[in-house]
Every structure is written in C-alpha cells, then in structure tokens.
Amino acid sequence: MKMYLLCFSTLMLISGCSTRLADLSIISSRNVEMSPDYELVERNVKSSDMVTVVLGVSFGGANIEEAVEKAMDKVGGGDYMTNVIIYDTSYSILGLYGRHGITVKGDVWRKKK
User: Fold this and answer.
1) What pLDDT, on the 0 to 100 scale, is given for residue 2?
2) Half-sphere exposure of 12 (CA within 13 A, CB side)
3) 3-class secondary-structure state, position 26
4) What three-state secondary structure class fits 37?
5) What are the boundaries of each domain within the chain?
6) Beta bridge partners of 111
7) pTM here?
8) Are 109 and 40 in contact (CB under 8 A)?
9) Are the C-beta atoms of 55 and 96 separated by less than 8 Å?
10) How far is CA 111 from CA 10, 21, 40, 45, 53, in A?
C-alpha cells in the first residue's frame, strides 16, 4: 500500500499537458512560389520551440515560426511543410521548474535541385 501511495504522490507532483492547437494543410515561414518543382524531403518531421518556466515566470516566448524553421532545418533545409499538426506542450515539476512550448509535426518539402 505504501508503494501505491508513493507512486500516486510522485505523479501528483509532476504534471504535463499537450493540447492540439491546429491542423493545417500547408505552412511556411519563408516566401514560397508554389509550383510542381518541389520534392518531398521527409514525412512526419517533428520539432519544438520550448522555453523554460521557473516559479511561474517564463523566460522568453515560444512561437510557431521558430518551431517550423527548426523542423525544416532538421532535414537539411526545406521550403514548406504540409499536413501539419501544431501542439501546445508543457510540463512542470512541483510548479517550481517547467518547460512550455510549441511543437509542429508534418511533411517537409523543398525545391528540386
């Protein structure tokens, strides 16, 4: 019984949450001329822009543009993403320390070489 109480107490002290914000057909942080001259680089690329939170104070601000840039750079450079899902993610330990951010997941495309 003590083990169950210890596990329950630990889970109550560490909390996290992820909320689906949007599903988008296409997204880019760059100027893109839409044409058939693009190729799929990689599917289901996932990246985040996270900030630290200490005692409820956020050090900076997470944004979607930065998360998209990181995802496109992760595969060697891309121009836009399709089938994008955007999540708002956060976790906290005792309310003292935590992380909050934006996560994007989607398919990265770039201009054919």
Assistant:
1) 73
2) 6
3) strand
4) coil
5) 16-111
6) 38
7) 0.79
8) yes
9) yes
10) 49, 28, 9, 17, 38
For the record, the structure tokens of 57 come out as 């104070």
How far is residue 69's CA from residue 12's CA, in Å, rounded to a whole number? 35
* DSSP string over 61-111: ---HHHHHHHHHHHTT--SEEEEEEEEEEEEEETTTEEEEEEEEEEEEEEE
Cα–chain center distance at 94: 23
Pairing label, strands 14-27, 38-54: unpaired
Residue 16: Cβ within 10 Å count: 11
Q: How many residues are recorded in the chain?
A: 113
Helices first, then strands: H and E counts in the chain = 2, 5
Tell me the two tokens of residue 106. 């989607």
For the chain, the farthest-separated pair of C-alpha atoms sits apart, in whole angstroms, at 64
Which two tokens mark 91? 């976790």
The pLDDT of residue 62 is above 80: yes
